[in-house]
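testing teh design pipeline on a random one, pls ignore if ur not involved
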Protein backbone atom coordinates (compact mmCIF):
# COMPACT_ATOMS: atom_id res chain seq x y z
CA UNK A 1 0.00 0.00 0.00
CA UNK A 2 1.34 3.45 -0.88
CA UNK A 3 1.53 6.24 1.66
CA UNK A 4 -1.28 8.01 -0.22
CA UNK A 5 -3.52 4.95 -0.09
CA UNK A 6 -2.73 4.53 3.61
CA UNK A 7 -3.63 8.18 4.27
CA UNK A 8 -7.06 7.89 2.65
CA UNK A 9 -7.65 4.50 4.25
CA UNK A 10 -6.94 5.96 7.70
CA UNK A 11 -9.31 8.84 6.94
CA UNK A 12 -12.04 6.36 5.96
CA UNK A 13 -11.42 4.26 9.08
CA UNK A 14 -11.79 7.39 11.25
CA UNK A 15 -14.64 9.15 9.45
CA UNK A 16 -17.48 6.61 9.56
CA UNK A 17 -17.11 5.60 13.23
CA UNK A 18 -16.76 9.27 14.19
CA UNK A 19 -19.94 10.27 12.31
CA UNK A 20 -21.77 7.32 13.87
CA UNK A 21 -20.77 8.52 17.36
CA UNK A 22 -21.81 12.09 16.54
CA UNK A 23 -25.17 10.82 15.28
CA UNK A 24 -25.72 8.91 18.53
CA UNK A 25 -25.01 12.11 20.49
CA UNK A 26 -27.40 14.09 18.27
CA UNK A 27 -30.31 11.63 18.62
CA UNK A 28 -31.80 13.48 21.60
CA UNK A 29 -32.00 16.61 19.42
CA UNK A 30 -33.61 14.59 16.57
CA UNK A 31 -30.68 15.47 14.30
CA UNK A 32 -28.09 13.79 12.13
CA UNK A 33 -24.57 15.09 11.55
CA UNK A 34 -25.52 16.57 8.16
CA UNK A 35 -28.34 18.60 9.73
CA UNK A 36 -25.96 19.65 12.49
CA UNK A 37 -23.56 20.88 9.80
CA UNK A 38 -26.31 23.16 8.46
CA UNK A 39 -26.99 24.54 11.95
CA UNK A 40 -23.27 25.19 12.49
CA UNK A 41 -23.02 26.97 9.13
CA UNK A 42 -25.95 29.24 9.98
CA UNK A 43 -24.57 29.87 13.46
CA UNK A 44 -21.04 30.64 12.25
CA UNK A 45 -21.80 32.55 9.04
CA UNK A 46 -25.40 33.78 9.33
CA UNK A 47 -28.35 33.31 7.01
CA UNK A 48 -27.86 31.47 3.73
CA UNK A 49 -29.93 30.61 0.68
CA UNK A 50 -30.80 27.00 -0.16
CA UNK A 51 -28.35 27.16 -3.09
CA UNK A 52 -25.53 28.42 -0.84
CA UNK A 53 -26.18 25.65 1.68
CA UNK A 54 -26.21 23.04 -1.11
CA UNK A 55 -22.88 24.37 -2.41
CA UNK A 56 -21.31 24.46 1.06
CA UNK A 57 -22.42 20.89 1.82
CA UNK A 58 -21.69 19.59 -1.70
CA UNK A 59 -25.21 18.18 -2.00
CA UNK A 60 -28.21 18.73 -4.23
CA UNK A 61 -30.76 21.45 -3.48
CA UNK A 62 -33.64 18.94 -2.91
CA UNK A 63 -31.60 17.42 -0.05
CA UNK A 64 -31.20 20.88 1.47
CA UNK A 65 -34.96 21.39 1.18
CA UNK A 66 -35.54 18.19 3.20
CA UNK A 67 -32.93 19.19 5.83
CA UNK A 68 -34.41 22.65 6.21
CA UNK A 69 -37.97 21.32 6.40
CA UNK A 70 -36.99 19.06 9.30
CA UNK A 71 -35.11 21.91 11.03
CA UNK A 72 -38.15 24.20 10.63
CA UNK A 73 -40.39 21.49 12.14
CA UNK A 74 -38.03 21.29 15.13
CA UNK A 75 -38.15 25.07 15.52
CA UNK A 76 -34.39 25.44 15.00
CA UNK A 77 -34.55 27.52 11.79
CA UNK A 78 -36.94 29.68 9.83
CA UNK A 79 -37.04 30.85 6.24
CA UNK A 80 -37.28 34.50 5.31
CA UNK A 81 -37.54 36.29 1.97
CA UNK A 82 -34.28 37.43 0.41
CA UNK A 83 -33.71 40.62 -1.58
CA UNK A 84 -35.20 38.82 -4.56
CA UNK A 85 -38.71 37.71 -3.51
CA UNK A 86 -38.14 34.30 -5.15
CA UNK A 87 -35.09 33.62 -2.98
CA UNK A 88 -35.63 32.15 0.46
CA UNK A 89 -32.96 32.52 3.12
CA UNK A 90 -32.57 30.15 6.04
CA UNK A 91 -31.63 31.50 9.46
CA UNK A 92 -31.51 30.21 13.01
CA UNK A 93 -34.40 31.02 15.30
CA UNK A 94 -33.65 32.25 18.82
CA UNK A 95 -34.40 28.71 19.99
CA UNK A 96 -32.05 27.38 17.29
CA UNK A 97 -29.26 29.64 18.55
CA UNK A 98 -29.75 28.24 22.07
CA UNK A 99 -29.81 24.64 20.77
CA UNK A 100 -26.58 25.15 18.82
CA UNK A 101 -24.79 26.27 22.00
CA UNK A 102 -26.27 23.35 23.93
CA UNK A 103 -25.20 20.83 21.27
CA UNK A 104 -21.67 22.29 21.08
CA UNK A 105 -21.30 21.76 24.83
CA UNK A 106 -22.86 18.28 24.53
CA UNK A 107 -20.39 17.24 21.78
CA UNK A 108 -17.29 18.75 23.40
CA UNK A 109 -16.42 15.59 25.43
CA UNK A 110 -16.63 13.44 22.28
CA UNK A 111 -14.25 15.76 20.43
CA UNK A 112 -11.87 15.92 23.38
CA UNK A 113 -11.85 12.12 23.70
CA UNK A 114 -11.28 11.69 19.94
CA UNK A 115 -8.36 14.14 20.03
CA UNK A 116 -6.69 12.72 23.15
CA UNK A 117 -2.93 12.77 22.64
CA UNK A 118 -3.14 15.01 19.58
CA UNK A 119 -1.40 18.36 19.97
CA UNK A 120 -2.91 21.68 18.93
CA UNK A 121 -0.18 21.97 16.28
CA UNK A 122 -1.06 18.52 14.87
CA UNK A 123 -4.74 19.52 14.72
CA UNK A 124 -3.84 22.73 12.86
CA UNK A 125 -1.63 20.84 10.38
CA UNK A 126 -4.27 18.15 9.80
CA UNK A 127 -6.89 20.85 9.23
CA UNK A 128 -4.65 22.56 6.68
CA UNK A 129 -3.94 19.27 4.90
CA UNK A 130 -7.62 18.31 4.72
CA UNK A 131 -8.50 21.82 3.47
CA UNK A 132 -5.93 21.52 0.65
CA UNK A 133 -7.20 18.06 -0.31
CA UNK A 134 -10.77 19.36 -0.35
CA UNK A 135 -9.73 22.27 -2.60
CA UNK A 136 -7.91 19.87 -4.96
CA UNK A 137 -10.93 17.56 -5.18
CA UNK A 138 -13.33 20.44 -5.84
CA UNK A 139 -11.28 22.05 -8.63
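output:
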Amino acid sequence: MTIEQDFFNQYRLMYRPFINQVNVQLEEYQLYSSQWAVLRLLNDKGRHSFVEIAHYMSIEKPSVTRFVQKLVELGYVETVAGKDKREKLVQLTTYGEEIVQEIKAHLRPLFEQALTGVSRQEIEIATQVLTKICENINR
